[in-house]
Write a structure and sequence with these properties.
- This protein has 348 residues and is of the alpha/beta class.
- The protein folds into two domains: 239 residues, Aspartate Aminotransferase, domain 2 (3-Layer(aba) Sandwich); 96 residues, Aspartate Aminotransferase, domain 1.
- It is built from 14 helices and eleven strands.
């Protein structure tokens, strides 16, 4: 019953086997090999347009480099108050980009476009002391397991266009959001106004594969240098490319995401019917949040449930009691019927 995180799951067999297959022989280094070019072409096909792909090893550096691409002197980037970028990356995006991060509120981790506009207006371009607005970032799927459908992205993108700011998407769980919405990669990103994204594979069956994907050409101009300066130009980048090669073959990435989402829905149904647990909100991807008495949470952990306590977002503080805990359960490609069965028996 390990629902701690999709980061805890190993690599999908098809991906580890492709890594072994690509391990022999010689390949041009530093992203210039044939497999790197092949996978970049595959990215273009998936997103239905020409784009630039920069392979990296972690989602944190992908977000950080994306912010660097949007950097301005005294720059400010805007994201949700609970976004991974501002809450869980130890200041890395600010260090790498020189930008400050400004949190924007919104229910269920979805940024409120009106609040975003007001925050941007607080940095007028003729007031040098405050700094200047530089970029906006949304998280897909969000840290609360919710998703931005295209109707939710549209008003944020409209604000970005109004102020001439690039829109970034943190897609650490992009595949889970994609299948949860039954959308296309193009519709969810550049067709909705997204200019660049952090494309994650690690949480969805890869070993260690992330990428900065840039749809707006001018934002890619200096990215190779930002990546090198940050120490993330991998000499043997073919091993990141090899993971993505297998990830995309026969739509494995969508299969693993559907699998994780399906098991998250099963968990949510069990919690919905449990007498001493309740869903905090409906999951839309592979993260399930439930509320229970803190004593009950402790007992479940002692009985073998592996999951974490989560901080209740400020927008939802009135929905949890002082003697209660918000628990997060995350499913992955490795979650199976046994995990669900054990959980059902435990909470019964």
């Amino acid at each position: 019953m390990n629902f701690a995180s999709d980061n805890w799951a190993g690599a999908h067999r098809a991906i580890s086997e492709n890594l072994e297959r690509r391990a022999s022989g010689y390949e041009t280094a530093y992203g210039a090999g044939e497999i790197d070019k092949l996978v970049e072409k595959r990215f273009c096909e998936i997103f239905e347009r020409d784009l630039k792909v920069f392979f990296v090893a972690t989602g944190t550096i992908a977000n950080s480099l994306a912010m660097a691409a949007a950097g301005k002197p005294g720059g400010v980037a805007f994201c949700h108050t609970g976004a991974h970028m501002i809450a869980d990356e130890c200041g890395a995006p600010e260090l790498q980009s020189g930008l400050r991060l400004h949190g924007i509120a919104g229910p269920h981790a979805i940024m409120d476009a009106g609040a975003l506009q007001s925050a941007i207006e607080a940095y007028p371009p003729d007031f040098v002391h405050g700094g200047q607005a530089a970029a906006v970032s949304v998280t897909q799927a969000t840290e609360l397991g919710t998703v931005y459908d295209t109707d939710a992205i549209a008003p944020v993108a409209e604000v970005c266009r109004k102020f001439g700011l690039p829109l970034h998407m943190d897609g650490a769980r992009f595949a889970n959001a994609l299948v949860g919405l039954d959308s296309s990669p193009a519709d969810m990103t550049w067709k909705s106004g997204v200019d660049m994204m952090s494309f994650g594979g690690t949480k969805n069956g890869c070993w260690c594969a992330e990428a900065v994907v840039i749809f707006e050409p001018k934002l890619a101009a200096q990215m190779a240098y930002y990546r090198k300066r940050a120490g993330h130009l991998l000499s043997k980048s073919r091993f990141v490319a090899a993971q993505f090669e297998a990830y995309f073959t026969d739509d494995l990435w969508l299969q693993t995401a559907r699998h994780a989402n399906r098991y998250a829905a099963k968990l949510a149904a069990l919690i919905d019917n449990a007498p001493d647990l309740r869903l905090a909100w409906q999951p839309r991807a592979n993260e399930v949040f439930a509320i229970t008495k803190t004593t009950r949470f402790t007992a479940l952990k002692k009985a073998g449930l592996v999951c974490g306590a989560w901080r209740m977002p400020s927008e939802h503080q009135n929905e949890i009691g002082d003697d209660e805990t918000l628990m997060r359960l995350v499913t992955s490609f490795a979650t199976g019927d046994r995990d669900i069965g054990d959980f059902a028996r435990l909470i019964s």
